[in-house]
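Why do we care about 3D structure at all? Because function follows from shape, and shape follows, mostly, from sequence. That is the central idea of this module. The next example makes it concrete: a single protein chain, its amino acid sequence, and then its structure expressed as tokens.
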Amino acid sequence: MSYTTGELAKLCGVTVRTVQFYDNQGLLKPEALSEGGRRLYGEAGLKALQIICMYKSLGLNLSEIKSILSNEGDCREVLIKLLTDRERILEGELAEKRRQRDCIKAVKQQLAAGLAISSNTFIDIQTDMDGKKRLKTAYAIMTVLAVAGFLAETAFVVLWAVKGWWLPFAIGMPCVLLLTVVLWAIYYKNTAYICRDCGKKFKPKPLAMFFAPHTPKTRKLVCPHCGSKKFHFETYSD
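And the structure:
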């Protein structure tokens, strides 16, 4: 069966100009010319255009598609390499888009809170987002250690209550208490606060931070910069 340029374009969902362009680039070869001089393509041309469209949808450029189609042997290795390279590029683009999205959200939050946007805002936001990632990592470590400590403490109590084995409890509980101190040290090292009034970052004294009322994301402290005593926002520590 033969197809005109327009018919081939319609079957593959592209424009006539696109088919003509691929023809001029040597990616498509007409099987014959009609009496009126129009180029006619067969099933091989249809299949070739479908393959080109598929590769284009994967993000491959024209030179890459040419290298695949012109490969006389098994093109799988060439295709795997090209797709691996394309995948790596896309991963980088996705990471950049996610970073831009996070920046947009952060700027919107600042605007909604009535904070001014300065020339350093973008840098501050980037630094803050990087710090939050480190803070999340610290939280993950603390969670694992806390669960391990809770399970150990429970086991010591059960052994003492059921079996009458007091020695594991006597040895283990100081270790659990030491673990609690380590968890607090990790938390204190990685945490600072942003003043709700002046916007400056500060790190409180350990005891003031330990005994201060708090929520999951704020803690009632005195800002050393402006003296404001409010529930200031938790952030990472430099």
